[in-house]
Amino acid sequence: MFFLTWFLPCCRRELSSYGLRLGLSLIKSIALCSFAERYRKIPIHHVTVVKSSPSSLSLFLAFFLTSIPIIIPVSTMVVEHASLGDGGQIKTLIDFYAAKDKMIPRSLSEIYEYIRDFLVFRDKKLVVGCCALHVSWSDLAEIRSLAVDPRYANRGIGTALVSACITEAKQLGVKRVFTLTNEPEFFEKRGFVRVPKSELPMKIWGECIHCNKYPECDEEALVFKIK
Predict the structure, then answer these.
(1) Phi and psi for 208 in degrees, rounded to 5?
(2) How does the average pLDDT of the chain come out, rounded?
(3) Which residue range is the domain that position 120 belongs to?
């Protein structure tokens, strides 16, 4: 009984002085971890609170309280190969930008025909981004149909898709990856270099007849060299 009458008031005093620091530490840690979770799956263990010249009781409370794991859900947003069930959502994304003359439209049959070219950025079951890597020659591949749901803009989804395509191209042994785009600055920030269209093989222009702007193409050609 004596222990309780001594221990509980001490806990109240320690917690009252400790509460603000602990709360701020937890908020800061959760904020940082949440930011990291948007782009990478990082396991979160615990938060450590440091207090100068702590008492024994303070150390006990700090260890006890901050050793409780902070549970942050693992991000469900991932880049992966498209499946047949994604065809309709991929077409919806492409149609959105094709209607603005920013992308060549794709029929549903064409998307299914080249479904193995597509990578998707998935938020649970929702496809919020897509991109295709199409091999054009023994040492050349094209990144095309890069589209991101505008509700998910500025979250690094386009960068993640392009990086995944480059990684896959490297695994295939492709030496150069090119793209034709109205957004050259986006690709230049990711290591692509503008080149004259005449440097690209004539066979890649076969799809241009499906573009609303044909034959007055205003897209820029950019190339990424894989080392």
Answers:
(1) -60, -25
(2) 74
(3) 77-225
